[in-house]
Amino acid sequence: MSHLLVIGASQGIGLETVKAALAAGHRVRAFARSAGRIALSDPNLERFPGDALSAPDVAGALEGIDAVVQALGVPFRDLLGPVRLFSDATNVLVPAMEQAGVRRLVAVTGFGTGDSRQAIGPLQRLPFRLVFGRAYDDKDAQEMRIRRSSLDWTFVRPGVLTGGPATGRYQVLDRPSSWTNGLVARADVAQFIVRDVESRDHVGRAVVLISHALPL
């Protein structure tokens, strides 16, 4: 079993990844500013309060770690202003991982990041740009910084996120020609992340995850 560092572990996909990794028997270091409030009980869970923009915090969190899951998010209200969290945190994380000799990174970005942006359908393109444009420009910078690294990375690009339990019926779209937007449960994304950390099937690749396609 691996020792995983989950950055952004207090909510969303990060929290679901913590749950899925613990269920699979991994040791998990849950990193977030509010990590102390994570309401889970498991002997393999370590809560690690820290700031993803702090180099000392990140370096300390990497000690003894086998793989990192970067699952950062910003509140909806922050999408209307400049967004720098994804790229700034990655500019801290990547050199810290290289220095620590931790090579495996799974980074959660999103459908519409990087070369998947051209797969956004015409009905979705304008509202996507208006609402998520600033955040996804920053996610582009995040992915570009990781691509320039020496790490064994995978980009996980989920579609529109939903709640609820894992279904296990999601699609892993790993060819650009197959990329399309759709709905997917956060718990299913987490399930894929944990499996891919174990299998390393998509090192150096980006995948889109959906359960049900949306109209183009």
Automatic annotation (TrEMBL):
This is NAD(P)-dependent oxidoreductase. Pfam families: NAD_binding_10. InterPro entries: NAD(P)-bd_dom, NAD(P)-bd_dom_sf, Polyketide_Oxido-like. Residues 8-195 form the NAD(P)-binding domain. GO terms for molecular function: biliverdin reductase [NAD(P)H] activity; riboflavin reductase (NADPH) activity.
